[in-house]
Design a protein that fits this description.
Blueprint: E1 14-15, E2 17-22, E3 28-33, E4 36-40, E5 45-51, H1 55-63, E6 65-70, H2 76-84, H3 92-96, E7 100-102, E8 109-111, E9 116-127, E10 131-143, H4 156-159, E11 163-165, E12 170-172
């Protein structure tokens, strides 16, 4: 029997994304966000939800762009730091030792050290209450050669992304492959 624990943000796991933006004086900024995901296939889009008090909130509205830098487990410390301090009074790139790279395609920086980058143009915002959802059209994906599989696309195990467990506020790495999508369940097809 299942026990009711109330309405909570316990979708598991959530991604650990580092959102890159520029401030009003062109200073690069990053923040860690877990409220995000893919929201459309065509055009390819992601969504990330931010509180209005965050520096990244105004930065995205002003520049109409953001990046999603996906950290590997080797950078969990830096990713956590980017979510602990405010970009309003802290240079998170200097503080974390990470390197800001100016995107050639959107008006936002990304993190050089992270293996997978999504460059996004702001399409729409939706005020949800405590958070505003930013929907960004992915204009390009950049990946380190080392994280590409034989098919030339990012490989989850090689990227080694971090996930976040909201109930216990803990980071986790990815585990082994369980099976191929649209295949392992075929035994139930009639």
């Amino acid at each position: 029997m299942k026990k009711s624990i109330g309405a909570k943000t316990f979708a598991m796991p959530t991604p650990v994304w580092v959102i890159g933006t520029y401030g009003e004086n062109d200073e690069p900024n990053i923040m860690t966000a877990a409220w995000g995901g893919i929201c459309c296939s065509e055009p390819p889009c992601v969504t990330v939800s931010l509180q209005k008090i965050r520096a990244s909130y105004d930065n995205i509205l002003n520049r109409k762009a953001f990046t999603v830098s996906i950290p590997s487990k080797a950078h969990v410390v830096e990713a956590d730091y980017a979510g602990m301090v405010s970009g309003k009074n802290t240079d998170k790139f200097t503080g974390s030792g990470l390197t800001a790279v100016k995107s050639d395609l959107v008006d936002a920086p990304y993190v050089q050290e992270f293996p997978l980058i999504l460059e996004c143009q702001l399409l729409q915002t939706i005020d949800l209450g405590m958070h505003t959802q930013f929907i960004g059209k992915i204009v390009d994906v950049k990946a380190e050669d080392a994280v590409l599989g034989e098919n030339g696309l990012p490989n989850l195990i090689k990227v080694s992304p971090i996930s976040y467990s909201p109930p216990d506020r803990t980071y986790f790495g990815m585990g082994p492959e369980l099976g191929q999508a649209y295949s392992v369940g075929s035994q139930f097809k009639k």
